[in-house]
Amino acid sequence: MTLAPATPRRTGRRHDREIIALALPAFGSLVAEPLFVMVDSAVIGHLGTPQLAGLGVAAALLTTAVSVFVFLAYATTAAVARRVGAGDLPAAIRQGMDGIWLALLLGAAVIAAVLPTAPWLVEAFGASDTAAPYATTYLRISALGIPAMLVVLAATGVLRGLQDTKTPLYVALGGFSANAALNIGLVYGAGLGIAGSAWGTVIAQCGMAAVYLAVVVRGARRHGASLRPDAAGIRASAQAGVPLLVRTLSLRAVLMIATAVAARLGDAEIAAHQIVLTLWSLLAFALDAIAIAGQAIIGRYLGAGDRDGARAACRRMIQWGIVSGLVLGVLVALARPLFIPLFTADPAVQGPLLATLLVVAVTQPVSGIVFILDGVLMGAGDGPYLAWAMVATLALFAPVALAVPLLGGGLVALWWAMTLMMTVRMLTLWLRTRSGRWIVTGASR
Length: 445
Hints:
- The protein is mainly α.
- It has helices spanning about 10-45, 50-65, 70-85, 90-125, 130-145, 145-160, 165-190, 195-225, 230-265, 265-305, 305-345, 345-380, 385-405, 410-435.
- Helices cover about 85% and strands about 0% of the residues.
- α1 packs parallel to α7 (about 165-190) and α2 (about 50-65) runs parallel beside α5.
- The longest helix is centred in the first third of the chain and has 37 residues, at about 10-45.
- Keywords: Cell membrane, Membrane, Transmembrane, Transmembrane helix, Transport.
């Protein structure tokens, strides 16, 4: 009996199943992460305004510190997926352990830097005299959990590379539940105040890291992979992460410049900008989930030496990105009048917010393509190009954004500058994808 050759439709359906199986759990785990801060805010908010303000400053510093090292997840996913595609599971897990050891080393370095400088960091971030002591307390205690947070990033990358996004979802949900219970118990039951909230987060993050380590160690023993730190492997993981670090810092700089410009436009504009940025980030979670699936799938195909499979998967994921962007854009455009009152009742804020969200809605298909191509190139291990492209985008965006208040533009003009930034990213990523230079097969790039 001769099997019928795979048709484009059947191939597309196979890719669809793979994307859905990886993207849906990834979306759940991504959404669960910011819930940690939301729980802390809800619990501490009842202690008083200074405590809540202190949490806001400390949480912003912690989020920035941890997000800088997100390359631990991205680089590890790509490297592990390649070895999975090559059929070498012991090497895949060994590669993942190198990323975890690197996470521990970086976490220790961050603790050493944050503990003595916490008061200065809080002051530099503009905390008031009443909020600063609470911010310092929360920052110093929570910093003890940074190694665990970074291990969670690296271990998440290991499991994604192994084509498993369900375990990270379960761990994230368990960590969120534990964090909520610990916060309530330590803040109110034990009477520890904001320190109790910080300790609750540290314990929950350590618990998540312990679960991840147990899963990875079990897999290492099953496949005979070494768990010992390997200097060469750790160094290779760090080298692979440097370009992604540059990319992430450049992207953070874009967001910081946009916020600084919005602050110069006036109180109503910065308030509206923060709401828009929050919703923009929420939309990004949905698109990033597909990109995460792309990292794992593309890395596996390239590791297996399947160039055609990688190209076909890339094309299908671009279609997913465009359709997802269109759907999200329509939803934002239609739902604007409904959810804006949930954020603010101030007409001075609602006006620019209504108009700016329309710009965000129009941009969503572009964002969909950007996120997908970003994930494809990450999965291919094409970090140096991603770094160069993002630095070039930042260089173009900065003068345009800074010119907005000088030319009398408002928040809408600023977000058109953000649209320009996303369009430039799309063009640079599309040109690279079209060139085919990202298609490098083998167990390592």
